[in-house]
Every structure is written in C-alpha cells, then in structure tokens.
Amino acid sequence: MQEVKRELRKQLIARRKAMSEAEKIQADESIFAQIKPFLEKASAVLTYVSTEIEVDTRRIMEFCFERGIPVAVPVSGDTELSFYEIRSFSELSEGRFGILEPANRSETFSADSNALCIVPALCADGNGARLGYGRGYYDRFLSRFDGKSIILCYSDFKMSVPTEPHDKRCAMTIFDI
User: Fold this and answer.
1) How many CB atoms sit inside 10 A of residue 140's CB?
2) What SS3 state is found at 66?
3) How far is the C-alpha of 120 from the C-alpha of 133, rounded, in Å?
4) Fewer CB within 10 Å of terminal CB in the chain, N or C?
5) The pTM of the whole model exceeds 0.90
6) pLDDT of the chain, 177 residues: tens digit per residue
7) Residue 171, Cβ neighbours under 10 Å: how many?
8) E strands, the chain, where?
9) Distance, CA of 25 to chain centre
10) Which of 148, 132, 118 has the alpha carbon at shortest distance from 49?
C-alpha cells in the first residue's frame, strides 16, 4: 500500500504543478466562498500555510486576522504537529521542509471543540478520506483533536483514496465547484 501511495503522490504533485494560474485562482475562490461560513462560526482556525501547489489558505488567514478569529499554524516535530497562534504573516519564517512556520514557539495553541482545523490533501474523496504527503502528521494530530476538521481539495483531485487503518477521516471535504 505504501508504494501505491508513494507513486500516486508523485503523479498528483506533477498534476498540481501543471495547473494554470487562472484555473487555480478560480478554484481557490470557489473553495473560499464555501468555507467562509465555517470560519465565521469557528472559535479558532488551525491551518497550514499553503504552498504554490496547494489550495490557498492565505486568504482564509487574512479573513480571520481581519475579524479577530485566532489563527494557529503548525510546526512539524519529529513525529507530531504542534500549533502556535499567529496574528500576521510577518510572524512566519521558513522552517522544516521549506514550509512557513511560526517564528515564536513560546506557547502551543490549545484548541477547543469549536475550533476548525483545515487539513491539506493531494487528493480526497467526498467522505473525509484524504491522501496527504505521507508523514502521518495530521493523522496523529486528528486522533486527539476535538474540533471540526475540513479538507480543502481541487475537484480535479476528487477520487477514491487508498486508506489504511491509521488514516483519520475528516468531518468534511470542500471541493471547488
């Protein structure tokens, strides 16, 4: 199963890199419009900082900053994710894997059951299953997270996802329309 997932990841990353900028912008707009009501109801938003091939989370973060909704961003440890609150993009610096992470790590963020966790995925199905980047960080995090988890995924990457017992499903998936 691991080899199947590894090969699928390579194919999906290549397809993501081939998306046109116009296609990505339109899809990101559609996803943002759909997630907005969930953001407005959340006590806090835990989210990854998107890279050029991922669904845009920067607009989501800006929306939260403007409305005073706490935003927490992950830092990857050896096996676990820890989230830290940020109040602006200036509080980020390049970290492990070349991903932007909070520079200040003095106090981990404690999420309540009304928090929303936005989970990255290379592909997903409509039932909360996803294929991530293969290190299991979010599966381990979601096993102890009490809030709502949402996958953001482009509709061209909606497919049956190979899963294993340790893979955690999210509450829902939002695809562009």
Assistant:
1) 15
2) helix
3) 9
4) N
5) yes
6) 778 898 999 999 999 999 999 999 999 999 999 999 999 999 999 999 999 999 999 999 999 999 999 999 999 888 889 999 999 999 999 987 788 999 989 899 999 999 999 999 999 999 999 999 878 899 999 999 999 999 999 999 999 998 888 889 999 999 998
7) 15
8) 45-47, 71-76, 81-86, 92-94, 100-102, 116-119, 123-124, 130-131, 148-153, 172-175
9) 17
10) 118
Structure tokens at 93: 């610096």
8 A C-beta contact, residue 47 and residue 117: yes
Compute the distance between CA of residue 149 and CA of residue 143 in angstroms, rounded to an integer.
11
| Residue-level length of the chain | 177
- What are the CA-CA distances from residue 18 to residues 24, 166, 171 (Å)? 10, 31, 29
> Chain-wide mean pLDDT for the chain?
94
Amino acid identity of residue 86, one-letter, is I
DSSP state of 170: P
- SS3 at position 98: helix
Name beta bridge partners: 174. 152
Extract the tokens encoding 129.
Answer: 């299953």
